[in-house]
Amino acid sequence: MESHHPQTPCEASELNRRSFLNRLSITLGSIAAAIVAIPSVGFLLGLRRPTKEWRSVGVLNNFPIGATTQVSFPDPSPLPWAGVTAQTSAWLRRVSEDEFVAFSVDCTHLGCPIRWLPSANLFMCPCHGGVFYADGTVASGPPPRSLFRYPVRVQDGEVQILTSPLPIATELGKETS
Ligand code: FES
């Protein structure tokens, strides 16, 4: 049989305090979960798409025909607190008078910055020994696909790169499958 004994004022106030704290922690937890979830859900639904943008990387005369030069520009999707990491770069080659190719510096294996070795005519990745030919295709090592390329144009005497977010790992899998 259930026994009901009257609560003292002290016990009643303790119960009220506990119930208030429980409700407060549930409310704060829900708010925190929403703060974390909303940007992720927006990203997954494709609502947060960094825009593509043509960015100047130098004047035409700075790039000799045949040379492969590293150029830097702001990352297409910088976060407000990114600091120096908001800067990224590409390897730009002037193929002819008005033709350029630009390769992402990110290795297609795990994203380490690749280096151009003019004497070997190859791109090398220092992390796991990935090697790419001058046209960006894989020569050896673990990279699963060719280097990503950026569209390039010449506008008013300036070389411009169409910056856009590079595919993430899952999209990479789709492309290579
Ligand atoms: S990150 Fe380049 S080979 Fe692994």
Features:
disordered C terminus, 177 residues, elongated, alpha+beta, four-stranded antiparallel sheet, binds FE2/S2 (inorganic) cluster
Short description:
By secondary structure, the protein is an alpha+beta fold. It has two helices and eleven strands. The relative contact order is 0.14.
Report what the structure shows.
With 177 residues, the chain is of the alpha+beta class. 25% of the residues lie in helices and 29% in strands. It has two helices and eleven strands. It has helices spanning 9-44, 169-176; strands spanning 53-59, 68-74, 87-94, 100-104, 115-117, 122-124, 131-133, 138-140, 149-150, 152-155, 158-163. The strands form three sheets. The protein has a four-stranded antiparallel β-sheet with strand order 2-3-4-9, with no helix packed on it. A hairpin with a 4-residue loop joins strand 7 and strand 8. The longest helix is centred in the N-terminal third of the chain and has 36 residues, at 9-44. It is elongated, with a radius of gyration of 27 Å. The model is unreliable at 168-177 (pLDDT under 50). The site of FE2/S2 (inorganic) cluster has 11 residues, from loops.
Report the mean per-residue pLDDT as an integer.
82
Number of helices: 2
Q: Strand pairing plus helix content: what structural class?
A: alpha+beta
Biggest β-sheet strands, sense, barrel:
4 strands, antiparallel
Please tally the β strands and state the result: 11
State the share of residues found in helices, binned by percent: 10-25%
Radius of gyration from CA coordinates: 27 Å
**Beta-strand percent range:** 25-35%
The span between the termini is: 68 Å
Q: Name every ligand kind in the structure.
A: FE2/S2 (inorganic) cluster
What would you call the shape?
elongated
pLDDT below 50 for ≥5 consecutive residues: which ranges?
168-177
